[in-house]
């Protein structure tokens, strides 16, 4: 695994998602909840829809697909609401000196 710098922490508004590109892996949605950052595959597994355009639920730590309403756990990538039934990948995140790094294969 390699840690790739993807953005500055300040690039992600609290309670929102940001789509980032990392060479060698599909797009990733970064979600900021206060000072915690989560990285989840930016693709709904029900249809190929960008999750970073969806709504973040900070209480449940989920990201909702705007197209059909499936929600995905930011912690596990597992869908929590149908119609999606397959998980999306999650990645380890670290914040160092105000920069966000994602562990990628």
Automatic annotation (TrEMBL):
<dbReference type="InterPro" id="IPR017941">
    <property type="entry name" value="Rieske_2Fe-2S"/>
</dbReference>
<dbReference type="GO" id="GO:0016705">
    <property type="term" value="F:oxidoreductase activity, acting on paired donors, with incorporation or reduction of molecular oxygen"/>
</dbReference>
<keyword id="KW-0408">Iron</keyword>
<dbReference type="GO" id="GO:0046872">
    <property type="term" value="F:metal ion binding"/>
</dbReference>
<dbReference type="Pfam" id="PF00355">
    <property type="entry name" value="Rieske"/>
</dbReference>
<keyword id="KW-0411">Iron-sulfur</keyword>
<keyword id="KW-0479">Metal-binding</keyword>
<dbReference type="GO" id="GO:0051537">
    <property type="term" value="F:2 iron, 2 sulfur cluster binding"/>
</dbReference>
<protein>
    <submittedName>
        <fullName>Rieske 2Fe-2S domain-containing protein</fullName>
    </submittedName>
</protein>
<dbReference type="InterPro" id="IPR036922">
    <property type="entry name" value="Rieske_2Fe-2S_sf"/>
</dbReference>
<dbReference type="GO" id="GO:0004497">
    <property type="term" value="F:monooxygenase activity"/>
</dbReference>
<feature type="domain" description="Rieske">
    <location>
        <begin position="4"/>
        <end position="102"/>
    </location>
</feature>
<keyword id="KW-0001">2Fe-2S</keyword>
């Amino acid at each position: 695994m390699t840690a790739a710098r993807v953005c500055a922490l300040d690039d992600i508004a609290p309670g929102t998602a940001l789509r980032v590109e990392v060479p060698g892996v599909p797009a990733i949605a970064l979600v900021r909840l206060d000072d915690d950052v989560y990285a989840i595959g930016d693709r709904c597994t029900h249809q190929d829809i960008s999750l970073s355009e969806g709504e973040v639920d900070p209480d449940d730590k989920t990201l909702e697909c705007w197209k059909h309403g499936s929600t995905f756990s930011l912690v596990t990538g597992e869908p929590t609401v149908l119609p999606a039934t397959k998980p999306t990948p999650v990645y380890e995140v670290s914040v160092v000196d105000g920069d966000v790094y994602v562990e990628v294969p």
